[in-house]
Design goal:
The protein is 36% helix and 16% strand. It is α/β, with parallel strands linked by helices.
Length: 400
C-alpha cells in the first residue's frame, strides 16, 4: 500500500511513450495510485521498442522492451479499447473517480470518444486534466504531431549542440536522451501539483495545456537569455561554454577529463597545480570575462598542460584543491561509481513475470514520506479486473 506524500491521489494515465508516462511514474513514485489505460493487444507503443528486451527468470528474452520499463513503474495497467462505447464508458467512469487525468493524444483526438476535458469535467468538476502535445492546444502548429527529435530541432537545442562549425564533423546534433520528453514530464508533474493545490483551496479542477515546444524553448535557459539580451544567435561550441572559461573537456595522458572552473579562485588554483601560476595573473586570463575574450589563446595552452598527467592524477590533485573536475564515464562506469552505488541509484524491483527488473531510482529524497517502489512496470492489462473492481464497484459491471 502507498504511504507516500501523494497517498490517496488517483491518477488516470491515458498517455503513451515517454513525456506523459514520465509524469505518471513520478506521481506514482510519490505515492499516487496511477492507473495506466492501454489498448488491448499492443498496449503502449514502447512495449515493442526493442531490443534490448527484459530477461525472464530463465534468462530468455521476454519481448518486453527495456524502454517501457524506464517510465512505467508504480502503475497498474488496464486494457480498455476506447474505440468502443463500452470502453469509453469505462474510462469516463474511472475519470469520474480520478483526481488527475494525463493524456498525450493529438489536439481534439479524445473529443470524438467523449474523453476530452470538457466531457470529463462535466462529470467530475474537480478533475485536473493534463494534456501533453507537441505544440499545444492553440497556434498554427497545434494540429501537428510532435516528437522529441523534431522539437529539439525546431526549438533551437540542436543549433547549440554539436561540434563547432570550424571543426571537422560539425553540424547539428541531438542530445543522446529524449530530453524534451523528460523535461516535459517534469513540467507536467509540477503543473499537476500546482493545479491540485488550487483545487484543494477552491474545489475547482482545471485543464493544463503543456507543449513540448514550449518546454524546449523555456529550457534554453542562459542561451535564450544571451540571445534576447545581445541579439546575437549562440553557435555550436562542442563541449565549451559560452559564458565560462575553462569549462569543457580536456585531454589527459590516458584519456579525457572535464574541467568545470566557475570562478577566478578556482582558476588560480588550477594554474598552480598545472605548474603555470603566471596564467592566473596574466591580464588576458586573470578574470573570467578576460578568459572568455581570449579563449582561443588560453585553451591550447591548457591542453598542452593537461596531457602531462593521467585523468586519475588530475582528479586526485584538483579535488584536493576544490577545483571541479571529473571523468567522462560510460554507463558501466556510472553504475560502478561509488557515489552512485552509495545513493542507491540502481534498484531491482520484483516482477511477477520476470523475477525482477533493473531500474533507475527516483532522485527525490523526502525525509518523512520517502519514495517507495511498490510495483514493477506492469504487464499489459495485468490489473484490469482489479482496478475496475476497486475504483468502480459496486456500480459498474466488470467486462466479460
Amino acid at each position: 500500500m502507498a504511504t507516500g506524500a501523494l497517498q490517496g491521489l488517483k491518477v488516470l494515465d491515458l498517455s503513451r511513450v515517454l513525456a506523459g508516462p514520465w509524469a505518471g511514474q513520478l506521481l506514482g513514485d510519490l505515492g499516487a495510485d496511477v492507473v495506466k489505460v492501454e489498448r488491448p493487444g499492443p498496449g503502449d507503443d514502447t512495449r515493442t521498442w526493442g531490443p534490448p528486451w527484459v530477461k525472464d527468470e530463465t534468462g530468455a528474452d521476454s519481448r518486453q522492451a527495456a524502454y517501457f520499463q524506464c517510465a512505467n513503474r508504480n502503475k497498474r495497467s488496464v486494457a480498455i479499447d476506447i474505440a468502443t462505447p463500452e470502453g469509453q464508458a469505462q474510462v469516463r467512469a474511472l475519470a469520474a473517480r480520478a483526481d488527475v487525468v494525463l493524456e498525450n493524444f493529438k489536439v481534439g483526438g479524445l473529443a470524438g470518444y467523449g474523453l476530452d476535458y470538457a466531457s470529463l469535467a462535466a462529470v467530475n468538476p474537480k478533475l485536473v486534466y493534463c494534456s501533453i502535445t507537441g505544440f499545444g492546444q492553440t497556434g498554427p502548429y497545434a494540429p501537428r504531431a510532435g516528437y522529441d527529435f523534431l522539437i529539439q530541432g525546431m526549438g533551437g537545442l540542436m543549433s547549440l549542440t554539436g561540434r563547432s562549425d570550424a571543426e571537422e564533423g560539425a553540424g547539428p546534433q541531438k542530445v543522446g536522451v529524449a530530453l524534451v520528453d523528460v523535461m516535459t514530464g517534469l513540467y507536467a508533474t509540477i503543473a499537476v501539483l500546482a493545479a491540485l493545490s488550487h483545487r484543494d483551496r477552491t474545489g475547482e479542477g482545471q485543464h493544463i495545456d503543456l507543449a513540448l515546444l514550449d518546454v524546449q524553448v523555456a529550457t534554453l535557459a542562459n542561451q535564450a537569455s544571451n540571445y534576447l539580451t545581445s541579439g546575437v544567435a549562440p553557435r555550436r561550441m562542442g563541449n565549451a561554454h559560452p559564458n565560462i572559461v575553462p569549462y569543457q573537456d580536456f585531454p589527459t595522458a590516458d584519456g579525457d577529463m572535464i574541467l568545470a572552473i566557475g570562478n577566478d579562485g578556482q582558476f588560480a588554483r588550477f594554474c598552480s597545480a598545472a605548474g603555470h601560476a603566471e596564467w592566473a595573473t596574466d591580464e588576458r586570463f586573470a578574470t573570467n570575462p578576460a578568459r572568455v575574450a581570449n579563449r582561443t589563446v588560453l585553451i591550447p595552452l591548457l591542453r598542452q598542460a593537461t596531457v602531462m598527467k593521467t585523468t586519475t592524477e588530475w582528479i586526485t590533485t584538483l579535488e584536493s584543491l576544490a577545483v571541479p573536475c571529473g571523468p567522462i564515464n560510460r554507463l558501466p562506469e556510472v553504475f560502478d561509481d561509488p557515489q552512485v552505488i552509495a545513493r542507491g541509484l540502481r534498484i531491482d524491483v520484483p516482477h511477477p513475470a520476470f523475477g525482477s527488473v533493473p531500474l533507475v531510482a527516483c532522485p527525490i529524497r523526502l525525509a518523512a514520506t520517502p519514495v517507495q517502489y511498490r510495483r514493477a512496470p506492469p504487464t499489459l492489462g495485468e490489473h484490469t479486473a482489479e482496478v475496475l473492481s476497486e475504483w468502480l464497484a459496486p456500480d459498474h459491471l466488470l467486462p466479460t
